[in-house]
Amino acid sequence: MNFLNEICGRPAHEKPFLLLVAGYPVEGAQVPVAATREKPLADISTCL
What local confidence, expressed as pLDDT, does residue 35 receive? Predict the structure, then answer.
């Protein structure tokens, strides 16, 4: 996946990875309200 470093302009010592969380939350689990608000696209992305 070295091509991602080139595309994103990142140094060679950084390695891209994907963290995929799977499963179900424990019964009664609560998510903070701030975590459920949608952010505008401009806040989480950039155009190169």
Answer: 63
